[in-house]
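Why do we bother with a discrete structure alphabet at all? Because it lets us treat a fold like text: something you can write down, compare, and reason about line by line. To make this less abstract, here is a complete entry for Helix-turn-helix domain-containing protein. Read it the way you would read a sentence in a foreign language you are learning: slowly, and without expecting to understand everything at once.
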Amino acid sequence: MQNARLMSVTDLAEYLGVTPAWVYNNHRALNIPACKIGGHLRFRPADVNRWIERDCRAAA
């Protein structure tokens, strides 16, 4: 198991250079891998990076 800290919506927004509202509004439509913990969205950094690699290659 990886010991990487899960990212919050705010963390992910900063990482992607978007607003937290953008993450909330688009995570389902764009299939950003997430899990809900305690009612809050959380993101595994490795999953997010794989999603970026996959989707950026598909869009290029």
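What the structure line is telling us, in plain words: The first helix runs from residue 9 to 16. The longest strand covers residues 35-37.
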